Amino acid sequence: MSDRPETPAAPSLTHFLPVPRLKDRSNGWKPQVQRAFIAALADTGSVASACKRVGRSTHGAYALRRAEGAEAFAAAWEAALDHGVRRIEDAAMDRALNGTEETIHYHGEHVATRRRYNERLVMFILRSRLPQRFGADSQGGTPPGHKGAIGTMEKRRLKRKWKAKWRKKWRAEWEAALPENRMKSAAEARKLIEAKLEDLRQRVLTRDSYEWRELTPETRDAYRHYKTLRARDLGRKVERESHLPSEADLAAERTAEEARYGKRRGTVQEEEPMPLPPPGWRDKTEEPKDSGPRIRTMKDEGWD
């Protein structure tokens, strides 16, 4: 055990009821060793460092904390850790104020030294120490009671909780409306299928109507006779296709078509035909008109 003097904060931490031990061993956790461990833990903030300082193992320290009658020892442990956290805070404050010294090497040789400051560490400390001035709520981002780094973590936790609650509510509403949505989807699908079937039916009827007009009267009469005989043999009524025109309708269509064709033909005949040129019009040559005095050349005939 080290004879290191206790820190000023140690007396307030070491005044606790030690954990009673069944045997007094030379390497055991005697009351003075327990108090020295708590003091070292307050100085270092590390369980491993405190155990090393008092010459004990970390396994023994945690076993002592779980032992019967260790309530006071565990409370002193927590208080010492709080002091260790304060020491870490002091070290962070020192790094934020004074920075850290770094060496610069060039080709393996030390050429300069510089001091680097951590701006993020400075802002973290300012937001934690003075949240009313440097916290997120100073810009209108965080509501009162959610300030600094701890407030940010709490805000994230609440956001995840609210998201999970909202997702659960949305799932319940979706499951409740699932039957109705399925009925709507089925009705819409049925309407779409019926519309496509009706369009296909109209195409088939139109095709049959055009093919019916291309058949000869003899073929049409044979088809009607077949339908009559088939209905008679099966004991059914004769079904007439309403989309197929009758002979009277076909005759009326032919009459109207012939009338339209004759009218167009009469209109063409009434127009005056273009007169043809008289025979031998290519043989006639027009004499050039005398447009004034003409200069004669050696090639002109009758040149004297």
Mean pLDDT: 79
Structure summary, number of beta strands: 2
Q: Which stretches of 5+ consecutive residues score pLDDT under 50?
A: 1-11, 138-142
Helix content: 55-70%
Major sheet details: 2 strands, antiparallel
Q: Enumerate the strands of the largest sheet in spatial order, edge to edge or round the barrel.
A: 1-2
Instruction: Give the SSE string.
Output: HHHHHEEHHHHHH
Secondary structure category = mainly alpha
Number of helices: 11
Integer-rounded radius of gyration:
56 Å
The end-to-end distance, rounded to whole angstroms, is 159 Å
Form type: elongated
Beta fraction:
under 5%
Describe this structure in words.
By secondary structure, the chain is mainly α. Among the domains are: 93 residues, no CATH class; 52 residues, no CATH class. The protein is built from eleven helices and two strands, in the order αααααββαααααα. A two-stranded antiparallel ribbon has the order 1-2. It is elongated and about 145 Å long. 11% of the residues are buried. The N terminus is likely disordered.
How would you concisely characterize the structure shown here?
The chain has 304 residues and is mostly helical. The chain is built from eleven helices and two strands.
SSE layout and pairings?
Layout: H1 10-14, H2 31-44, H3 47-54, H4 58-65, H5 71-98, E1 100-106, E2 109-116, H6 119-129, H7 131-134, H8 148-176, H9 178-214, H10 217-234, H11 247-270
Antiparallel strand pairs: 1-2
Helix pairs in contact: 2-3, 2-5, 5-6
Question: Which key phrases capture this entry?
Answer:
mainly alpha; disordered N terminus; 61% helix; 304 residues
